[in-house]
Design brief:
Strand content: 15-25%
Helix content: 25-40%
Number of strands: 9
Shape: globular
Largest sheet: 6 strands, parallel
Structural class: alpha/beta
CATH topology of the largest domain: Rossmann fold
Order of helices and strands: EHEHEHEHHHEHEHHEEE
CATH architecture of the largest domain: 3-Layer(aba) Sandwich
Number of domains: 2
Oligomer: single chain
CATH superfamily of the largest domain: HUPs
Length: 279
């Protein structure tokens, strides 16, 4: 496994890896890797000739009051895990290399970034879109892998790639959960044992909504209320609970096709997101 810090060196390595029509699967991460990230690496390994990844805690997607300074950065452990899962190329730049003095350009992807996460974190998706586009330029792979846990983020990336004619295929892989249902997240490390138990209410609430739909409930308002009631019983108040048409951020009232139930909740000081596809 080769590790690069300089953008030019990573770009040269990826372009070299693509010679002879070989495919390169790219997994952008902020590190603090868990089984969810590694499932993306495994998917890239299964589908592509060469696997590349990045580890970069992107400052532009954090608001001033968020956890940039506290975000975990176990680089040596992360590199070991990537090597164990067959990663070939890793990019680990500094913030100064990604955002040289005087850098001002950012990407606004429009309406898909406005509700839900965008409303709660107004600068977040501009930071995400900008760093992902920069990474796609530095690591010009044939495929890029993202997790469904960040549902709205996957829509933002797809919109950007389509609008800006980026020649890369986006793959979205399933959420990976603990045996108890908790969606894996680097921020789970912030949870105390009691908070971790309380956080199980997120996946439980989504599962109750799934069960209600399977029993014939087609009212999105009813499903949202089921989710809110279960969260409230666990002492949690969500930032939002959304039922949207699958592949969009558009809320529905009557469920006539596949939808995604998505939520964001603060458990103690830790903000967690989760979602599930229904129908």
């Amino acid at each position: 496994m080769n590790v690069y810090v300089a953008p030019a060196e990573m770009r040269t390595a990826v372009l070299s890896a693509r010679t002879g029509n070989r495919t390169v699967g790219f997994v952008p991460t902020m590190g603090a890797l868990h089984a969810g990230h590694l499932s993306l690496v495994d998917a890239a390994r299964a589908e592509c000739d060469v696997v590349a990844a990045s580890i970069f805690v992107n400052p532009t997607q954090f608001a001033p009051h968020e956890d940039l300074d506290a975000y975990p950065r176990p680089l040596e452990r992360d590199l070991q895990l990537l090597q164990e899962h067959g990663c070939d190329l890793v990019f680990t730049p500094s913030a100064e290399m990604m955002y040289p003095a005087g850098a001002e350009t950012s990407i606004d992807v429009g309406a898909v970034a406005l509700p839900w996460e965008g409303a709660e974190r107004p600068t977040h998706f501009a930071g995400v879109a900008t760093v992902v586009m920069k990474l796609f330029q530095i690591a010009p792979a044939t495929h890029a892998y993202f997790g469904h846990k960040d549902y709205q983020q996957t829509l933002v990336v797809r919109r950007m790639v389509a609008d800006l004619n980026v020649p890369i295929e986006i793959r979205v892989c399933p959420i990976v959960r603990d045996d108890n249902g908790l969606a894996l997240s680097s921020r789970n490390a912030y949870l105390s044992p009691d908070e971790r138990q309380q956080a199980l209410a997120l996946s439980q609430a989504l599962r109750l909504a799934e069960q209600a739909h399977a029993s014939g409930q087609r009212s999105a308002a009813a499903l949202r209320q089921i989710i809110r009631d279960h969260l409230a019983a666990a002492g949690l108040s969500p930032d939002y609970v959304a039922i949207v048409a699958d592949g969009t951020v558009q809320e529905v009232e009557h469920i006539g096709g596949p939808v995604v139930a998505a939520l964001a909740v603060r458990v103690g000081q830790t903000r967690l997101i989760d979602n599930c596809r229904i129908g």
